[in-house]
């Protein structure tokens, strides 16, 4: 039985969802979606509660259609389906860039599993985003002088 989205599911609730909705149009630029993800707050669900700024949590990891592990990420707290809250009742907000920066090399992610606005990124796609994109505040405010980007052949980020 497939659950049909309610009309609320079809209305973008924030900037990220607007980019996700536009991302499905033929003339869409996927870079806009990636930048919106990196620079906006997103949500994960966990059985753990954040107890302080340095506390760690284990967010909910699902299996995709191929059986591979993917981190469940949501663009808005209301996109978290009841079935996920049953498994992990704590909804925690963080920057999309923090998600990308903390995902291991073996884990992909799925944004809004089961909702109208969402997509899946495999581990290689996550690595590409990590390599090719910097969040707006990092690119503008932080310069890492300890690293020489010219030696890796990739050029400036």
From TrEMBL:
Region entry Disordered, spans: 132-157
Domain SseB protein N-terminal per the UniProt entry, residue ranges: 16-127
InterPro entries: SseB_N
Name this protein carries in UniProt: SseB family protein
């Amino acid at each position: 039985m497939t659950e049909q989205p309610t009309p609320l599911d079809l209305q973008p609730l924030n900037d990220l969802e607007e980019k996700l909705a536009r991302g499905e149009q033929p003339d869409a630029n996927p870079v806009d979606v990636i930048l919106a993800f990196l620079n906006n707050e997103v949500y994960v669900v966990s059985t753990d509660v954040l107890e302080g700024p340095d506390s760690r949590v284990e967010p909910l990891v699902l299996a995709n259609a191929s059986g591979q592990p993917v981190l469940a990420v949501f663009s808005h707290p209301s996109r978290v389906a009841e079935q996920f809250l049953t498994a992990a009742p704590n909804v925690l907000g963080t920057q999309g860039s923090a998600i990308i920066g903390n995902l291991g090399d073996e884990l992909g992610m799925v944004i809004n599993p089961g909702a109208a606005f969402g997509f899946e990124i495999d581990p290689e796609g996550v690595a590409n985003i990590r390599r090719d994109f910097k969040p707006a505040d990092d690119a503008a405010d932080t310069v890492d002088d300890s690293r020489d980007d010219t030696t890796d052949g990739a050029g400036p980020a």
